[in-house]
Specification:
The chain is an alpha+beta fold and 319 residues long. Helices cover 17% and strands 35% of the residues. Strands 2-3-4-1-13-16-15-14 form an 8-stranded mixed β-sheet. Strands 6-7-8-5-9-12-11-10 form an 8-stranded mixed β-sheet.
Amino acid sequence: MQVKPLKGIHHVSAITANAKKNYEFYTKVLGLRLVKKTVNQDDTSMYHLFYADEKGNPGTDLTFFEIPHAGNTYRGTNSISTTSLRVKNDEALKFWEQRFQDFNVEYDAIVKENGRATIAFRDFEGQQLKLVSDENNTGVSGGNPWDKSPVPVEQGIIGLGPIRLTVSRSEVTAKILTSVLGFSELKNEDSVRIFTTGEGGSGAEVFLEEKSDLPRERPGRGSVHHVAFRVEDEEELMKWVNLLNEKGIPNSGFVERYYFKSLYFREPNGILFELATDGPGFEGDEPFETLGERLALPPYFENQRAQIEANLKPLETKE
């Protein structure tokens, strides 16, 4: 089965125990735009919040499922251990150092990683994040920060950067990345293997780190649920479904998510991968100007709106 190379990272989905605080941190502190306030389509009793650039361009979405009773995360192996977010240049990182101080955000010193300036930080639940400078980056282009954000456009976050996987057996994950998903191994730097796909660059990289001496991560609030990679369209996604079936890899098959179409499977260390189409996008049920202000439901859930809203704690997202 002939498939086109994956285009890069589509989105990352994580877990929060507090949608209100989550909304305040990611919009008021990080300056991302809430482009969709909806529900987890597999469990409509929980919010699914999508933060991104001005309109949720593929490759810019960091999303959260709210699980109010989620316990602490016990860090370990076989996990998506760091999510990176891209900014335009090195100068922007100095702005963020000061902003993190102003908002009492835990952060580390600026260091170089794979030739790029980066600054690691944590959100209020310990979500492990990193800002990455695109100063010398080539490859997949970033998105466009929202001009109504509290963060100036020049310093704004423009999309997702490299995703770090920490696993007990790196070789089996590497084999899935290269032999199945078509990534190329770029380099092995300080015991971290770097893989790239499509046009390459920071929006299309996976960092793979082996730590066989750690226990398996016990996920909770502040952990990552899955990472999704970009597929051009529905036709291409169906080719991937067929390819995984041909290779005997258990998978979800085609899944309708309304805002995009998806396919899910787990690699041998248990990390959940998703392949997701670039479209249709987030403006099918809300105009650009008011994205994220109301609870949006795909058409197949509209007849359940009253019941769904009754099961959710109100979350005010209209400024």
